[in-house]
Amino acid sequence: MTLVEAVLSGERLALARLLTQVENDTPAGRAALSELFPHTGKAHLIGVTGAPGTGKSSLVNQLARYYRRPPEGQAPRRVAVVAVDPASPFTGGALLGDRVRMRDLSGDPGVFIRSMSARGSLGGLAPATGGLVEVFDAAGFEVILIETVGAGQAEVDVARLAHTTLVVEAPGLGDDIQAIKAGILEIADILVVNKADRPGVENTERALRGMLQLAHPVDRSSLHHGRMVELPVATGNPEPAPAWETPIYRTVATEGAGVAELAAAIQRHRDYLTSSGGWERREHARLQHELDAILQVALIARWRDSVPAGRYQEVLDRLLSRRLSPHQAVAALLDGDLAP
Amino acid sequence: MTLVEAVLSGERLALARLLTQVENDTPAGRAALSELFPHTGKAHLIGVTGAPGTGKSSLVNQLARYYRRPPEGQAPRRVAVVAVDPASPFTGGALLGDRVRMRDLSGDPGVFIRSMSARGSLGGLAPATGGLVEVFDAAGFEVILIETVGAGQAEVDVARLAHTTLVVEAPGLGDDIQAIKAGILEIADILVVNKADRPGVENTERALRGMLQLAHPVDRSSLHHGRMVELPVATGNPEPAPAWETPIYRTVATEGAGVAELAAAIQRHRDYLTSSGGWERREHARLQHELDAILQVALIARWRDSVPAGRYQEVLDRLLSRRLSPHQAVAALLDGDLAP
Predict the structure, then answer these.
(1) Which of A310, B40, B208, B215 has the fewest C-beta atoms under 10 angstroms from its C-beta?
(2) Contact status, residue B132 vs residue B43, Cβ threshold 8 Å
(3) pTM for the whole thing?
(4) How do residues A98-130 score in pLDDT, each as one tens digit?
(5) What is the ipTM of this complex?
């Protein structure tokens, strides 16, 4: 049995091994991803982001527990958690800790938790995150929770990757902290005020509501900036779907309060995406983004291989001595024009 | 007189116009940048970054004032401020406000303040920031303060751009907020605890000192990830320069307290860079990064022009229907291999 077959048949050790291959972007990992790819596209990808101290990890735990032990009449779903830690460049270790978690779910074969470091990604998600998610999707995990600390690019990346994005806030993190985060409304499908038993919860919720009122609904597929090729918009259905209105939920994750209601809202968002065509649009945007990213790396690698050794250095030297400007240097590299 | 000549001769209106051209990346702006480029390389680029609420803007104001009105015996220097605002995608406006500032310096021809929005840059600095800095440099501004809100990619970008990077903290922003920021030590040449008259200043300074002790000194030119071409390291001087030890300064910017000491530390850092070869290394890394960024955009544009219309869409369709994996799709686009 190959590693891929073992993963498809549900072997956990094989899954763990393949995740490592994919995280390290090995040739075997890439080949396995291509083999698994036809099996992907079924999982509900849920991004969970927010500032440190908002209790994201506890909330993710509670959601996982809920999906494993749903109310009477609903089937449990297999849950994967991809926790992306911002890493210290010095210690190499994760800063968040708290990876010894969900003890009450340990031993449950329907749960798999994977922490990865965002080290080297300079503020965004680790490039391998999308690959890990594809492995879990192919391996039959129906819900994939992708947890990341809210910090600029990582938030945008997770919203690109997920179908449904939760942005978690908590009372008392300071008004100016809130203020800077107006941009996150662009990515939030559902806002969660966790630690809602703390004083100040009304203020936090009011601030969020105020921001939502300022905001116009945006089609989040516009997040897909920088496409390599701009495609015409499909015109099959000229009627715009009713816009999703970002709801605000209160939770106390440590006690599980509000988690069932939040899970119901996540389900409503999924239903909304499915009925409005949003699910397909997000899949489309995500895969096109992945294609573009890989294509970009490949184009650069090919160009590099095509340039005579020493040519780049020669042009760079002229740039450093300010005989060529950056734009002139690029023209020189691409057209061999060293005129000035 | 051309616009470039007018800028070189110090005309403020011409400068403002050219900055707009460069910010909008117009053909005229690009041509002007190439013309101005030989005049660059003299300014001291100082990045100032930190969370909202730390008082960065006030500190930048005070530094500008200090450089304009230095102590007896020192010459005033011309100062430009590039303030990069994170913009709300909804209002389009800057979130920080506070752009009506430095009233006491208004009318001083030796100061020029330019605000720009980071909108569209998805978490990083606006791509035009480097161009604006080059214009100011060519126009004879000796100190260029680049102010940006500390948020992941923007911090890394500003550290790439600047010779000297100040990271500003303030007491009472919460311990978990501090914790997440361990990564910023990688970019800080000087740490500033502003609002140092507030309670908790000792705790903040202690936390920073603790992080510094954990940290090993790193050559910041390693920040220049993702070079298009890796060059051998110059071996002219095999002795490593003594490492710069990141100092911590306390300031109360609203009262100007500690600003002279901070300015002296900035000068020491400049002297350190000059004597250790670090100045050249940073110039080198910055220009190579700029070259690579422009080259990347140009390579993609060329590739796009070389692909038959409809080809990208054809491959994308196969990807979306999961007949091709992302890596297979890239191979199909580059090699025309549609085998699977």
Answers:
(1) A310
(2) no
(3) 0.71
(4) 444 556 677 888 999 998 876 544 456 777 889
(5) 0.79
